[in-house]
Amino acid sequence: MDGRCMTGAVPMYHSAAHGTKGLAVISKNGDCGAPSMTFKGQNQDRANLLWQSKDNSNPYQNEWQALVDAIRGNAPHNEAKRGIDASVTTSMGRMAAHTGQEITWDDMLNCDQAFAPNADKLTMDGPPPIIADKDGKYPVPEPGVKRGANWHEYYV
Predict the structure, then answer these.
(1) Residue 31, Cβ neighbours under 10 Å: how many?
(2) Are both 125 and 61 inside the same structural domain?
(3) Looking at the structure, do residues 44 and 114 belong to the same domain, yes or no?
(4) pLDDT, tens digit, for every residue of 17-34?
(5) Statement to judge: residues 66 and 92 lie in one domain
(6) How confident is residue 93, by pLDDT bands cut at 50, 70 and 90?
(7) Which of 22, 42, 77 corresponds to the end of one domain?
(8) Is the pLDDT of residue 62 over 80?
(9) Domain span at residue 123?
(10) 93 and 71: one domain?
(11) Which residue among 77, 95, 122 closes a domain?
(12) With a threshold of 0.70, does the pTM exceed it?
């Protein structure tokens, strides 16, 4: 993910995924700038293009249209599973980035890490959930440094 909003810099906002076998352009411009594409290797050359989306419709409009159609047609509409799966996926990505470890779906679902311990007890005048050390510094992730069987204990 890249968003650039610095004065004098090229204004850029796009989403890409890089893997060992290639690259995927999720969005070329903004949140839903089509077309999406996949490439072999890491160069976005036409010669390396493996696939390109043909549907350039706005996914946000599609989402609302599906909801409105379900309401008007008195049809069931439930996006809970998709929302839960998306949330688990983002937690996996964050944990992988913070630990430098491969995090599987099962790892995430079976993790006993409290990601927001005592969040239900937070108050405006209560103590913060994370306290700075004597130098005013907060814990930071150390990917690849803190590792091993108890990788979840190092999650920040």
Answers:
(1) 12
(2) no
(3) no
(4) 899 999 998 887 766 777
(5) no
(6) confident
(7) 77
(8) yes
(9) 79-156
(10) no
(11) 77
(12) no
Q: Give every CB contact of residue 51 below 8 A, 6+ residues apart in sequence.
A: 37, 38
Place of tokens 């411009």: 29
Residues in Cβ contact with 22 at an 8 Å cutoff, skipping those fewer than 6 apart: 38, 39, 40, 41, 42, 48, 50
Q: How far is CA 32 from CA 9, 27, 60, in A?
A: 22, 5, 8
Mean pLDDT on 122-135: 88
State the pLDDT confidence band at 128, using cuts at 50, 70 and 90. confident
Do 15 and 28 sit in the same domain of this protein?
A: yes
Residues 54 and 92 in one domain: no
Q: Is the pLDDT of residue 154 over 60?
A: no
Number of H helices, E strands in the chain: 3, 5
DSSP class per residue in 92-123: HHHHHHHH-S---HHHHHT----SSTTGGG--
Q: Per the structure, how many domains does the chain have?
A: 2
Place of tokens 């005013």: 136
Predicted confidence (pLDDT) at residue 51 exceeds the cutoff of 80:
yes
